[in-house]
């Protein structure tokens, strides 16, 4: 692995910025070079948002994602804005409980009930961002689970660490199952 670029997209308030920060910190925990940035629509909560993470074992000369290797979309609006212009090698990860109209352009397409799984498991959508983090990190194969767990423990809001660890493990398992691999730490 030389470098992987991640684009996490959705709606403000879904916690994608925190998930991107956790992903970046997991990369740092794994002794990788990392760049992380984010942008919001003018509405902040409820508007479009995106977060970018680059993880590499080499120097990162430009901190913005140019050709994402992984694109996560947690809303229909985000899919329309970012999921349709991917190169054929990019992996598209869609929350099928939020995104219903998808035109996959390659075999690098994964559809998961991320928000629905969070609601069933935890009784609310609040941990869907960490479930998504688990899916993305697991599918990428770039960072070991223990480094991602460490980042979640460091960044989860006070009183939510246990739930967020469970959410991460749920998403990690979803990603492994999609790849046909068993759970490992």
Please describe what this structure looks like.
This protein has 185 residues and is of the alpha/beta class. It has one domain (3-179): 3-Layer(aba) Sandwich (Pyruvate-ferredoxin Oxidoreductase, domain 3), CATH 3.40.920. It contains six helices and six strands, in the order βαβββαββαααα. The protein has helices at 16-29, 76-83, 114-122, 128-140, 145-155, 161-179; strands at 3-11, 33-40, 48-56, 70-73, 91-95, 109-112. Strand 4, helix 2 (76-83) and strand 5 form a beta-alpha-beta unit. It is globular. The mean pLDDT is 89.
Summed up, the helix count is 6
User: In what order do the strands lie side by side in the largest sheet?
Assistant: 2-3-1-4-5-6
Main sheet overview: 6 strands, mixed
Distance between the termini: 20 Å
Count the E strands: 6
CATH superfamily: Pyruvate-ferredoxin oxidoreductase, PFOR, domain III
> Segments where pLDDT lies below 50 for 5+ residues?
none
Strand content: 15-25%
In short:
With 185 residues, the chain is α/β, with parallel strands linked by helices. It is 40% helix and 21% strand.
What is the secondary structure topology, with strand pairs?
Blueprint: E1 3-11, H1 16-29, E2 33-40, E3 48-56, E4 70-73, H2 76-83, E5 91-95, E6 109-112, H3 114-122, H4 128-140, H5 145-155, H6 161-179
Parallel strand pairs: 1-4, 4-5, 5-6
Antiparallel strand pairs: 1-3, 2-3
Helix pairs in contact: 1-4, 1-5, 3-4, 3-6, 4-6, 5-6
